[in-house]
Amino acid sequence: MAGVNLPMDLEPPLRIGTRSSALAIEVATEVARALSRVGLTEGYVLVPIGADRPGGDPSSFAGGPLQTEALRQALQDGLCDIAIHFGKDLPAGCRMKLGAVLPRADPREALCCTGGRSLDQLPAGARIGVPPGVRGPQLLALRDDLQIKTVRGSVESRVAQVRDGQLDGLVLARAIIDHQPLADLDEVFSLATLTPTPAQGLVLVEKARGLSDRIQQLLSAISSHDSLLQLVAERQFKRIMLQFRPAAGATAKSGAAASGGADHQQPVGAVAELNRWAGRVSLTMWGVVIDQGAPLRAEASIILDDDCDHHRHQAEELAERLVVKLQAACSDSSAAVRDSRPVGVMRDRRVLFDSSSPITGGYRQLIAERGGLAVPVPMASTSLALASDVDQVLLSCQQADFVGVSSPLVVEILAEAARRQGTSLDQCLAESTVVAIGAAAGVALAEQYVDFEVAPTAAVGRAALAGVWP
Description:
The structure is a single chain. With 470 residues, the protein is of the alpha/beta class. The protein contains 16 helices and 19 strands. The strands form 4 sheets. The protein has a 6-stranded mixed beta sheet. Strands 8-7-9-6-10 form a 5-stranded mixed beta sheet, with helices on both faces. Strands 16-15-17-18-19 form a 5-stranded parallel beta sheet, sandwiched between helices. Helix 3 links the parallel strand 7 (127-130) and strand 8. Helix 7 packs parallel to helix 9 (311-333), helix 9 crosses helix 16 and helix 13 (408-420) runs parallel beside helix 15 (439-447). The longest helix is centred in the last third of the chain and has 23 residues, at 311-333. It is globular. Residues 52-62, 245-264, 335-345 and 456-470 have low confidence and may be disordered.
């Protein structure tokens, strides 16, 4: 343990779990000092967990998500009282007891290279090092002559590759350079030009069970409401996108994400920004997915209510709007593929959809055009007041070849009915092709481990439906 600021009193020091890299320890120390400024009197002890391997073979480098998992396990095992996380490394589906979200560091991406050159000034075929993820395809969209090299390892080892001439440039998070000025900062990209991975620049404090009320109050005192909203929006976006498997192939659903494990799906980028003017506050969000090697982008905004209690819900709503826009872009990019599919291949197959939802009205015609048998079933929660009604709807879903679901509450009701019957919703729907009509329904289905396709909205959804229901 690395001891810091230990007063001689009867209160045990606060044990702060951190990754063992120089950057992580510096950030954890900043958190401890912030707590001291608002009233932490018993001192603190830093508890480094795991090894970030500053030297050695980069291929053996323990990535951020693995280190985060080890740190969370240490918290669960009682080795520390709070744990400091980098938001970008948290798996999309993980749940935690959040103690604080610190004021955000600069989330933008930066270019470090030799000679103080910008991206446009680098020679043809320049070798640019990037971490695995969404940065490479975005850079190629700016300059298709670049040689993108995936680099792993510590910040020190990556910067050394530029100094040694193995790379002409390196893309790093601006926040890293601000904390560790190991390299010259030659260009900073706008959020819309090079959209970072979700929650980049955000530092989170996870608290252990049984943490004293006083320490929890101190954590609340150092937490930023703005940063919390950015975290909620960006993680909601990431969570939804990693559950979907749209026709364009931009993302994929995986059991690992659904269960809260590491994210192995197609990378996504997202960042939210708050703006204040004339007494109003807006939340704007940029998102990017990689479709067939190329970035597809979208932007969405929302005006926040005066009531702060509504802000978290609005941040989630903004993420869902952005998902819809990106799904529309994916649908447009694959329109030629969809239009080439023959009409009538659904002939005589049963297609069940929620007749009580206003956004499913156009699907009956689409089903008829494709030769299917439309099975409209009222699936509004108010229509499922009796257990017998729920059981009948569940049976109809099991007998259908295709099932469209638009309400997350209905998903929960059907899942409970399946449990009453001694089974699970994913087993009941295993023989059906399930389509989530709307982002919220997709999240609910993913939480029940149901494999599904996605149709985001009525207009976009009808087009997407033509792609996922051939």
